[in-house]
Design brief:
TIM Barrel; eight-stranded parallel sheet; globular; alpha/beta
Length: about 290
């Protein structure tokens, strides 16, 4: 069985800081990351989706964590075909834009600017990659990104641009994992060695993906989004504010162990980021998955 790492999708969420999870004497950014890394071997950086990190910031993440610690980085929204606030774009590229827009998409940039965004985003991650701390870059595609030739080609473009940095792929359009297309999707990812991101999330919504665990590469990734009844809320804490009961997690433990039998590494991330819910559930799940 491959090694299973369990962590969370945040260590700086404001509601987490207010929850009392951190000891009273852990107050600085450096102390918080060092403390988090003493509790878990894995974390996902979600802030990089909203604004690309500076290389100096990434270097601090490296310096504040042990050598065996692993980061997943969520791809900048512009690169996953999500709407992006112009203020999130690099300042010099923003100044080259024409008439201001409420939201930007990659198609709104000239080819040279597109190359710059890719290059700067990936270059900033070098400290983690070079130190062996980078697990994968999470490409979470939007609900308007259905299965099809063009979108498969874009996924392969993302893979090629990021190489040798690894990417993993999460879908939010149901067509990829529908009963008719599921085998095709998993075969596609397997043929290119792309890790599929399995999810546990609310069902019955346009962006719902079934909780299918699948190993399509030597790395498997599983993200737990919770089962909030307010999944459509624009308030991120209402969407993800769900505390799993231990019985729910106990049902997942053997499934994750079976998944790990087909991989070299399985990375499990609790994304129910409200107060200390993710940290509490990650600790519970780690206890339920014995490492052999």
């Amino acid at each position: 069985m491959g090694r299973i790492l369990v962590g969370t999708a945040s260590w700086t969420d404001r509601t987490l800081l207010a929850s009392g999870w951190y000891p009273d004497d852990v107050t600085s950014a450096e102390d918080r990351l060092r403390y988090y890394a003493s509790q878990f071997p894995l974390v996902e950086v979600d802030s990089s989706y909203y604004s690309p990190p500076a290389e100096s910031t990434v270097s601090l993440w490296r310096d504040r964590t042990p050598a065996q610690f692993t980061f997943h980085i969520k791809a900048f929204s512009l690169l996953t075909q999500h709407p992006t606030k112009p203020t999130a774009l690099y300042k010099d590229l923003r100044e080259r834009l024409g008439e201001p827009k409420k939201n930007l998409y990659l198609r709104d940039l000239d080819p040279k600017a597109v190359e710059e965004v890719w290059d700067r985003f990936l270059t900033a991650l070098a400290p983690l990659h070079e130190s062996g701390r980078l697990g994968a870059i999470l490409f979470q595609f939007p609900r308007w990104f259905p299965i099809g030739k063009r979108n498969k080609e874009y996924i392969l473009e993302c893979k090629a641009r990021c190489d040798p940095l690894r990417i993993c792929v999460e879908f939010r359009n149901h067509t990829w994992m529908s009963e008719d297309n599921q085998a095709e999707t998993l075969d596609f990812l397997t043929s290119y060695g792309l890790p599929y991101v399995s999810v546990d999330m609310p069902q019955g919504y346009p962006d719902s993906i079934p909780p299918v665990l699948a190993a399509t590469a030597d790395l498997a990734v599983v993200r737990f989004h919770g089962h909030s009844k307010k999944w459509t809320s624009k308030d991120i804490h209402e969407r993800f504010g769900y505390l799993y009961q231990e019985d729910e997690l106990r049902e997942w433990a053997p499934k994750l162990r079976r998944l790990a039998e087909d991989t070299e590494a399985t990375h499990v991330l609790m994304n129910n980021c409200y107060r200390d819910y993710a940290q509490v559930n990650a600790s519970q799940l780690a206890r339920l998955i014995p490492q052999e």
